[in-house]
Amino acid sequence: MYPFWEGVLIHSTLYVAITSAFHVLVSHLTVAAAWFNLYIERRAVRENREELYQYLKRSALGLLVFAYVFGALAGVGIWQTTTAANPRGISALIHNFVFFWGAEWYMFLIDVVGIMAYYYTFGRVSKQTHLRLAWILALGSTGTLSIIVGILSFKLTPGLWLQTGNTLHGFFNPTFWPQIALRFYFMFAIMAAWALFVATSLPKGFFEREKIIRYAGGIGLLGLIGGVLVWLTMYEPALPEHARAILPSRAIPQPTFPIIYFGLAATFAGLLFAFIAPNRQRRVFALAAMAVMYGAIFGAERTREVLRKPDVIAGYISSNQLLFNDVPARGVQSEENRLSQTGMLGHLPFVPDVDQVAVDPSVTFGNVDQTVAVGRVLVIQQCGSCHSISPQTELNILGVALDLRSQAKLLRMRNLSTVDEIDAYLGAIHGFPYMHPFIGTPQERRALAEYLAAFVNNGAATSVAQAGR
Amino acid sequence: MDTGMTVGEMLKMMRDPLGAPFFPPALQALLVATWVLHIFFVTLALGSSLFAVYAFAQQRSAFALQLGRLAARLTPNALGLGIVTGIAPLLFLQTIYDPLWYTANALTGFWSVGFIFVVMGGYSLAYFFYLRGQHDRRLLFVAVASLVLLFFAGWIMHVLHGVSIRPDRWMGWYMPNGVIDTRGITFHAYNVPRLVFMLPLQAGLSLAVVLQFVAWYLRGRSNEPAFLDWVSELGRKLGLSVSPLYAVTGLAWALSEGPEFGATWVAAPLVALGLALMGWFVWLRGHPQRRAWSVLVWLAGLLVVAVVREALRVASLARFGYSIAEYPYQIDWGSIAVFSVTTLVGVAVITYLALVIYQAHATPDGQISLRVERLGKVATGMLGAWFAFFLLVGLYTLLFLR
Description:
By secondary structure, chain A is mostly helical. Chain A folds into two domains: 307 residues, Formate dehydrogenase/DMSO reductase fold (Up-down Bundle); 123 residues, Cytochrome Bc1 Complex, Chain D, domain 2, CATH 1.10.760. Helix content of chain A is 66%, strand content 2%. Chain B has 13 helices and no strands.
């Protein structure tokens, strides 16, 4: 339906993952930091502890310079990367939730103008007014989190929306409440690393430094423990059957789980250390904690995304951007049924007919057979959204290819190298819980197998040749 | 169209089958209106960045350096607001122009993604220069690099727009000589007069009007009336110099792009706008007390540009029998209710926050008036009540909505 951007050096979806993980880290940090700052400022006002404002000023400057703008940029980055990588997926979300996103935009505007007001009015307005600004920041940032979770969770569990087409059903879906609770708890662990980072920049003998570190460590620990409990008692039980089947499958590449478990354990240990020994904290510990959490978030968010494979929106649109179910309430009809009858070539925009496809050996591994060139067109449409389908997205660092489930590697791993073998394999591909059936005619499937066979047998050699060119 | 479809058929097929949640022309109006704020802040960031570089490179007068410091501080803040205000038009653009925007991004994928990293680089360097560079001339290259990156980011957006409004050329760009190119690294379409009109010239005008505003705003706080007079006059002269160029470049844009889409008439409003702005800056010489109005005048001018820009898009699509007036829609009252309530709350809170910033810095002692304090109480209460509303909608959906 749309042109396909495979990516350059790494696969397009990895750009999404890298940007998203950063956004999650920064955005959760800002929400929790707003609440923590409110807590500190309330104590400062009620107990008349002027020294606490030193911390608040530093934290606010950091949030203003780093978190809000980089968080916003990474948020826009998610738009850009998902738009380039999977336009129809983001389109389905936009056409359901544009007004929810509009509502989130107001909350975000409150955050950004709010942090400017908060930072630039220290000492210029009364303490009560400033405390009100802290309240606004805490509430506004929680508003953004509350709204975006409805859209994120919809992708895994659209719930009654599939029957009613009602966006309220899609928004307040079965995993909405568990996910909001999960994020609300975990964000305090991220915040603790931020607070540690800011507090350790205060002079070592500073009156309130150790108290703030202890507060942050304690709150972070509670958040971490609360998050794990929410996962076990609310989120995991709310996962649909399909997601449970995916969880232990090969769709989630290793070492994703060890990274997540290590991240949880290391964060727990780090926060406990901060709580017990606030006087021994260093800035480098905070940076290390953030790096560890970035890795864990990368793994966790990626797992959440993979859980709904092979769909972008479970039960509605597949990763290769085709609608495969009717939603009568919204007048939507499955495209897969129609395309299975007509074939793909020439029946979708940007999927040309056979006679428009030219042969270029540089993209078909030296092959001059037109069927292989046609197969490439089909691979692009059917497989490219999730797999590296050419050496273009196999960045090689010290002999290690950073590809994304390279089709050549997968087929080699399964000892499939001939056109017949690959064709038969494609015919049974929907046996995996994370794959849809091939869409198109038998001739098209054969052409696709021809390209993959060329990729399996010559891809590595071509990759080396291209690298040398 | 190579697949056997006409361009119009292809565009209609590419529309999202879920349709828009509201009348598409209303969303179009929101797109145009919100873009005005976005382009104002973005060009202000470019203008202030340009001035900071100029001031620190020349170091001719104490006033210029003083203003250069203000400009260096303004750049990252204006950019932050430019980014945030850019989200709203992006939402509405995707809703009614999904075939255009998504295709342009996929065809230019590498730069669409690279845009974010370019802006992050530009922003970081701008902040670094503000914090560290002002006292060390050797760090001027940081400000220059920031300016280059920010301008480049604007160019990328310009290219995406240029690609999006030329659907008849998409297939040729995607599949040159019958071979699909999946790299997305080519700048397929740009128009130099339009680029110059949109970025450097509008940057000059945004800076010019903000200098007028700053001179007016700081009058109650500053004990340097000579400096403020100088700032005001600099802004006026800048506006006076740029606006005729703006008219000429607008004409060049209209003549280069207008005929392609069958809309040469766009030359008239663009030239008229440039001349009207020139008239405004001439008039201001005798009416300095009105200088703060420059911002509103300029926002009205940007609205004209936004309408022209939209008219060109509409004209381009009309060539293929495509109109967003025919975009399918199904009114979605649930999400409209959430949006409307959040709009009320958002406007109240943001107004309060803006007034706090304004009053806190308008006078030396930063007094916040009682009326603003009262508004603050109400706005904060509304924000708290929003959560009750949100929860109630959730419970209603969960328990009663079938």
